[in-house]
Specification:
The structure is a homodimer of 370-residue chains.
Chain A: E1 2-6, H1 7-18, E2 32-38, E3 41-47, E4 51-58, E5 60-63, E6 66-70, H2 71-80, E7 85-91, E8 94-99, E9 102-107, E10 126-129, H3 130-138, H4 151-154, E11 155-161, E12 169-175, E13 179-186, E14 195-200, H5 201-212, E15 217-222, E16 226-231, E17 234-239, E18 258-263, H6 264-275, E19 283-289, E20 293-300, E21 304-310, E22 312-316, E23 319-324, H7 325-334, E24 339-344, E25 351-355, E26 361-365
Antiparallel strand pairs in A: 1-5, 1-7, 2-3, 2-6, 3-4, 4-17, 7-8, 8-9, 10-15, 11-12, 11-14, 12-13, 13-26, 15-16, 16-17, 18-22, 18-24, 19-20, 19-23, 20-21, 24-25, 25-26
Helix pairs in contact in A: 1-2, 3-5, 6-7
Chain lengths: 370, 370
């Protein structure tokens, strides 16, 4: 292998693939990045056996070849390099880098030791605008169960269907059984047949980071057990979670007794102030009534107590329940609308939060029983 | 105690005193901040028994009094508060805060439990411009010994004298016996008698943070065993370290055999690239010669090797030595000049770094013996 590449291209490529690489993995090649010449470009690949990333950058290929080198080392080296271009050449398992007054040898491992990243069907199953998907993920994925003892709900539900507007829709859901976030996103064109899958949280989280530095259209490919997301010059491949996602739609209440339209910022401030006096299980009390809006309270024997009144446009009967303040803040902090609508039934039934004037998003949270 | 204060004033006061307060100190009052009405203003105080901070903010005092409250809680509460003004009143040991629609009680401890912060001589011993001191500290204090087994060099040396220009000078030094940073700063007026003290690192580090948000003149007061720094409305009081600071000036070489003027940025990049291949004791090799400037090299059996040539204006004989790259970067990263001068005698004698064209600063570093 021998090639010349700009520092900026290498940096961009390394940035795309580096996050999934381990450090100190006993299988040493998993700490490495694969560099490979590929049809006139340079392919960089990384994998942690669950997720794989490929990205391609431009360069001048003088001799075909491939080699793996430690991800952390090459990253730090390239990020520090003050020069514009660098020549990379492999000799046995050593990568030689020459750039103006810098001469470096990095010890690598043969490309044959690098795990194969699976290939996936040639035809894209679905297409979606990257900003639409980014916004939908930002409003949902944090609601998944952090604990992997329940593998299905540790992942994110993706449900594709041809219905829902002219171009079909993607339903994204995440739940930990105490709260649920669901968002409908618009596809670019209807899918041929509906499909429901569960994608590992780590994969979606990595996809979210890739979307943060990409734009344009994202393509989604499937095999029996794998998914591939493709945007710009980067591919993210992951296994799917095998299992049945809970039929969560049945727990979303059809009607409510109390509704309050309230400033999202004001409610956040009130919850934060009150959270300082919440018990160890994060309990705070929400009381909604036509006269006083939303009253947020908590008291703790050690710290003291707080009461904050937030003005709100209330309709329906008065209502009160205890909630984990973190569950409320998770939702409110990830929305961007000025006002939200809070709906309640009783102190033992799920409550709902929606952004005012938008119906493609719903957040359901269970009260704490006292 | 009863008073009204703006949120911004309270926030500024809490910011100034909060850093020295502990969290989870078994002596609970040491986790608290003292609020006290004081001649028409509000005094906030904190202490960790080694360092004490007092600061004064304006407010409308309706009833004199004092109370201590947990620092972390009041800080988070005030920082989150969306309103402009807040009324504080003490009832027994509870602080009641009322602000528009916020009503809060914070449990505190009686002010009598709060340790006395010592009073210091009424007359300032020395005065210095805060920017001059900030710049001098930034170039020196990181060179102190992190380890407190040698208490003298765990602190920062301050030597005041009436000599050195018209207004007297302050000599600041820090060393860990392997390297030494010394800077002469200009005082605003000559001191009446010379004085040499050792101030704990933690105190100087806190002073540096206070200087970061202050401007104007800093006054320095002394008692037998204590020092007080006063700027704007804030006082920092600390014990001094008892002991004899090493007579470091004798180890500063009077003459050198090799001198290289080099770009600071280029040398930093070369050291960083090479550091990736340094051994576990951080060894890298510097070779200076008229023909090739500065050659920076390192090699490690595991990672590989690097050689970077940095062009330099060299005079004197060729020379080479091993250094801990962190010791070199500490100095170079904290200077701001474009060029630095590196001077060497041999692979067993101290080397020197100075910013080009400035003589009030010197950095001495010992080579590593191989």
């Amino acid at each position: 292998m021998k090639l010349i590449c700009t520092k900026d291209n290498l940096k961009k490529g390394l940035f795309a693939v580096s996050r999934v690489v381990g450090v100190g993995n006993p299988l040493q090649v998993l700490n490495n990045i694969l560099l490979k010449t590929d049809q006139g470009r340079i392919r960089l690949s990384s994998t942690n056996l669950e997720i794989g990333v490929n990205t391609w950058v431009g360069g001048k290929i003088e001799e075909e070849g491939a080699l793996t080198v430690p991800a952390k080392l090459i990253n730090e080296y390239i990020n520090n390099l003050p020069t514009e271009k660098v020549q990379l050449s492999a000799k046995d398992t050593t990568l030689n880098l020459i750039s103006e007054n810098y001469k470096t040898n990095i010890k690598g491992l043969p490309s044959e030791e690098f795990p194969l990243i699976p290939q996936i069907a040639e035809e894209a199953y679905a297409k979606i605008d990257s900003n639409e998907l980014k916004s939908a993920l930002s409003e949902t994925i944090w609601a998944a169960a952090g604990n992997e003892t329940q593998p299905e709900i540790s992942g994110i539900f993706l449900g594709f269907s041809a219905e829902g507007g002219e171009t079909g829709k993607l339903r994204i859901a995440a739940t930990d059984r105490y709260r649920l976030a669901e968002r409908n996103a618009q596809l670019k064109e209807p899918v041929k047949s509906p499909k429901e899958v569960i994608v590992p949280f780590r994969t979606i989280s990595e996809l979210f980071k890739i979307l943060g530095v990409s734009s344009g259209e994202l393509e989604i490919y499937f095999s029996e057990t794998q998914v591939l997301f493709k945007i710009d010059e980067t591919e993210l491949i992951s296994r799917l979670i095998d299992g049945q996602y809970p039929d969560y739609q049945q727990i979303i209440p059809k009607g409510f007794k109390t509704e309050a339209v309230v400033s999202r910022e004001e409610l956040i401030h009130a919850l934060k102030a009150t959270s300082l006096f919440a018990s160890e299980s994060n309990n705070i009390q929400l009381e909604i009534s036509e006269g006083s809006g939303i009253r947020v309270t908590a008291s703790s024997a050690a710290a003291g107590e707080n009461e904050t009144l937030v003005s709100a446009k209330v309709s329906g009967s008065a209502n009160a329940a205890m909630f984990n303040f973190r569950y409320l803040l998770d939702c409110l902090n990830n929305l961007s609308e000025t006002n939200v609508v809070v709906r309640m039934i009783s102190d033992a039934s799920p409550a709902m939060i929606q952004p005012e004037g938008r119906t493609n998003y719903v957040y359901i949270v269970m009260p704490i029983k006292t």
